[in-house]
Amino acid sequence: MRFTKAHATGNDFVLIADPQAQHPLDAEFTAAVCDRHFGIGADGLIRAVPAQRSEDGRTALTEAGLTSTEEAPLWFMDYRNADGSIAEMCGNGVRAFAQFLRAEGLAELTEGTLPVLTRAGLKTVRASEEGYAVGMGVWSFIDPELASQRASDSLVQAAGLEDPRPALSISMGNPHTVVALPDSDALQALQLHQAPTVDPTPPHGTNVEFVVPADPLVEDGVGRVTMRVHERGVGETLSCGTGACAAAAAVRVWAADQGVDTWRLNVPGGDVTVRFHARADGAEEVELSGPTVQVYRGELMAE
Ligand SMILES: N[C@@H](CCC[C@H](N)C(=O)O)C(=O)O
């Protein structure tokens, strides 16, 4: 089985093309491939499969009210975390996925964009100045009632944190819980090889982002935030695209500054940009942009 190793600001992935849907993934295979000692090593495994040829792809098509044909296949991003669990969405992964489809000659940009079907709906990827950008859809509070005071809906504790801190949970198709810290010393003191605890515990788990808003928060019209993340199903990663979007949304809420639409997130693996576009109904669309790099191609010897 041929594969490509890629990363987006250090969030790394193994990508495989499965045009005939002959290689359905399972948890054991995924965990073995992502193992950094006994496998290739990655934060996630991504399979590219024509949507109509995979069960999850067909479900996603139905949910999105879309069709996909042999002549015009819509590619489905079958995303798995390093521990083998399934995730609805991956913001860095979907950007690496578009680059992979193009490099494999499986898809092209049409009028500058490439649609990708995910478990969290249809996403549109375009080439951007930084590499690839993806329209992530609308962000939302996970618990609108608890979050209605627009401050916090849970408490998070983590190794290296003195006391539990209030957090705000946001959905980007997948779940995120964002915690603000006072300064970069507090951020560096965190030991994120251990999963933080979130109270109340979200039913499907959550990715936890720790953020330090810059001081001043906004420079040249751009909001700036430093972030570390513990990803559900992985551990600490060098970047998380959906996490960056959730973190920017939370900081924007806390700052009560809906006027700043562009945010630069500094993560251990680099920088990504998050942009908000208000819709007529008041909801806000989010776009994530950043670099994606193909590192090498290889052939998997043992299954
Ligand atoms: N790194 C990703 C998110 C991957 C999925 C996540 N671990 C989850 O379980 O929700 C990103 O760039 O968004």
TrEMBL record:
Q: Which SUPFAM superfamilies does this UniProt record tie to the protein? A: Diaminopimelate epimerase-like (SSF54506)
| Involved pathway(s) | Amino-acid biosynthesis; L-lysine biosynthesis via DAP pathway; DL-2,6-diaminopimelate from LL-2,6-diaminopimelate: step 1/1
| Example of a GO MF term | diaminopimelate epimerase activity
GO CC, any one term: cytosol
Ligand binding (substrate): N11, N81, G91, N92, N174, N207, E231, R232, G241, T242
- What EC designation does it have? 5.1.1.7
**Cellular localization per UniProt:** Cytoplasm
Coiled-coil regions, chain positions: none
**Catalysed reactions listed for this entry:** (2S,6S)-2,6-diaminopimelate = meso-2,6-diaminopimelate
Q: Where is the active site?
A: C90, C90 (proton donor), C240 (proton acceptor)
- Supply one GO BP term: lysine biosynthetic process via diaminopimelate
Cite the Pfam families for this sequence: DAP_epimerase
| Keyword Glycoprotein attributed | no
Return the annotated site residues (Could be important to modulate the pK values of the two catalytic cysteine residues).
H176, E231
The UniProt entry, under Gene3D superfamilies, shows:
Diaminopimelate Epimerase, Chain A, domain 1
Family the entry assigns: Belongs to the diaminopimelate epimerase family.
Q: Kindly state the subunit structure of this protein.
A: Homodimer.
Biological role: Catalyzes the stereoinversion of LL-2,6-diaminopimelate (L,L-DAP) to meso-diaminopimelate (meso-DAP), a precursor of L-lysine and an essential component of the bacterial peptidoglycan.
Q: What is this protein called?
A: Diaminopimelate epimerase
The species is: Garicola koreensis
Q: Which gene encodes it?
A: dapF
